[in-house]
Design a protein that fits this description.
By secondary structure, the chain is of the alpha+beta class. It is about 25% helix and about 35% strand.
Length: about 190
């Protein structure tokens, strides 16, 4: 009985939200939050030259490895799906590193791809990684959303696998159903017509 009651309350809340003026923005925000939870896909070269990537990063604090990959990914990332351009040029030695990565079309307004002071960029920026380097060279720090992600790529020769989990966005997705936006990435509608 308890499970049915909770399901009915959640269903009625979703229906009530959908019928209000903010319903479409609300549901678009939930969909965007769901797309932010993980970037994942199979990587493929777009040229015959072999490429290499074996890189792991834990919350932009402990980067390990090296990747020099620019090609295609079949998957999803940066709220985009499909056969997309993909770049992952990164290196790291525990507390010191650098990354230049992204999936699909670069959007400087996306808080996962650029900082608020970089909204006029036309190309993906390179960011520092590693607990020590970020503090020693703060002018090249990554966006705040990247501090709550775990990045992985293994690409050997002509194909590989990439996955970036965003634990902060997973929490943001679940809290978003209750009106909370801890990642500050929801669509805010302009109140003026």
């Amino acid at each position: 009985m308890g499970k049915h009651y909770v399901g009915m309350v959640v269903g009625l809340a979703c229906l009530a939200t959908a019928l209000t003026g903010c319903g479409s923005a609300y549901m678009q925000n939930r969909a965007n939050d769901a797309k932010d939870m993980i970037d994942i896909g199979l990587t493929f070269n777009d040229q015959w030259t072999p490429k290499f990537g074996c890189y792991f990063d834990f919350f932009n604090s402990i980067p390990m490895g090296y990747s020099n990959f620019e090609g295609k990914i079949l998957g999803m990332g940066n709220r985009q799906f499909g056969w997309l351009d993909y770049r992952h040029e990164s290196w790291g030695v525990f507390v010191w590193g650098s990354e230049h990565k992204g999936t699909g079309v670069f959007n400087p307004k996306d808080p996962h791809q650029a900082r608020p002071d970089q909204r006029d960029l036309t190309e993906r920026p390179r960011f520092n990684t590693g607990l020590v380097r970020i503090h020693c060279e703060p002018e090249n720090r990554p966006p705040n959303q990247q501090y709550v992600e775990c990045d992985r790529i293994i690409h050997l020769g002509w194909f590989g696998f990439s996955a970036t989990m965003h634990p902060g966005d997973i929490i943001d997705f679940f809290l978003g159903w209750f009106g909370l936006d801890i990642m500050n990435d929801d669509i805010v509608k302009d109140p003026t017509p």
